[in-house]
Amino acid sequence: MAQRARISKPTLARLERGDPTVAMGIWATVLFVLGFDQALAEAADARRDQIGLELEAEALPKRITTRRGKAGTAS
Prior knowledge:
This protein has about 80 residues and is mainly α. It is about 55% helix and about 0% strand. It has one domain (about 1-60).
């Protein structure tokens, strides 16, 4: 597995132990080698992040107003 993912055996062992210092790129590479590339793409899809979508909707302005009657502009 380490050879196919082009990482060292100690790095693979750290990944298998769940070491949080292993880079996301290495996780992605190993998932790709294992055939989980579609699952990784789905997990990274922002459209599936319900909490993130709700937070984004809360940050949107509730109303859009236009300024009227500014000097030098035609209404």
